[in-house]
Design a protein that fits this description.
The structure is a single chain. Helix content is 46%, strand content 18%. With 239 residues, the protein is α/β, with parallel strands linked by helices.
């Protein structure tokens, strides 16, 4: 636990000019933005969501790695409020328990509590920014990496992804090798994969499609076509 997380909440709030959190005010709609086990692991309680911004209670507002993962999972920008770590842990247990009791259930149907999680592996910063902005605007929870090695780390370290969007030409491990290792080595054998490419090599596309790639997106990115292909792949997988 960090020094900030151990400090009195009022002192941390004053130091960073943030509000003290009202932990009893957690909105069930905000809780659906973050799975309970992630909230517990990071000590982050979703409080409310407004205009695309998720307000969360945390004990340490300086833990940027934690905040980045929470934002990626929620698919939202974050606003922070402060509370003590122990108080947040207790409030998480209570809030999620109450939300489960209040959630309507329809017999025979599953309840989808979270946005679809998408891994974007693209070494070009401008292209990566465009892809992630389009996906987040469509309410996907996005994790972005710069090369295949970072993608392999993300696939092995986080909650399962619903889709990977992978550039064919990347340093370290390229898209072709990344796809082979994901499928052949069993890292995520059922993960749908869309390949990004600036190439017009039909033989390569046929080779990758035969190997199990779900779709291709050509560069430069055309936003409507890109999002249509993403939704199409996810519909096929869900069918």
């Amino acid at each position: 636990m960090t020094v900030e997380a151990l400090a009195p909440a009022a002192l941390v709030a004053q130091r960073h000019r943030l509000r003290l959190a009202d932990l009893a005010s957690a909105d069930p709609a905000a809780l659906t933005m973050l799975p309970e086990h992630v909230a517990r692991r990071h000590g982050a309680l979703p409080l409310h969501v407004d205009s695309g911004v998720l307000t969360v209670a945390v004990a340490d507002p300086t833990n940027t790695e934690m905040l980045r993962e929470v934002a990626d999972l929620a698919g939202r920008s974050l606003a922070l409020e402060i509370a003590g770590a122990e108080e947040i842990a207790a409030a998480i247990a209570t809030a999620y328990a109450h939300a489960q009791l209040r959630r309507p259930r329809t017999p025979g149907t599953a309840v989808e509590d979270r946005p679809k999680r998408v891994l974007v592996a693209e070494d070009n910063g401008a292209t990566r920014m465009i892809l992630c902005a389009l996906l987040r605007a469509s309410r996907f929870a996005v994790t972005e990496v710069r090369n295949g090695e970072e993608a392999l780390t993300a696939l092995g370290a986080s909650e399962p992804f619903d889709l990977a969007i992978v550039d064919l030409s990347m340093p370290e491990v390229d898209g072709h090798e990344l796809f082979r290792r994901v499928r052949a080595e069993g890292l995520a054998p059922e993960l749908p994969v869309i390949i990004l490419t600036a190439s017009n090599d039909g033989d390569l596309e046929n080779q990758l499609l035969a190997a199990g790639v779900d779709d291709f997106v050509s560069k430069p990115i055309e936003p409507k076509a890109f999002l249509a292909r993403v939704q199409s792949v996810l519909r096929r997988v869900a069918a």
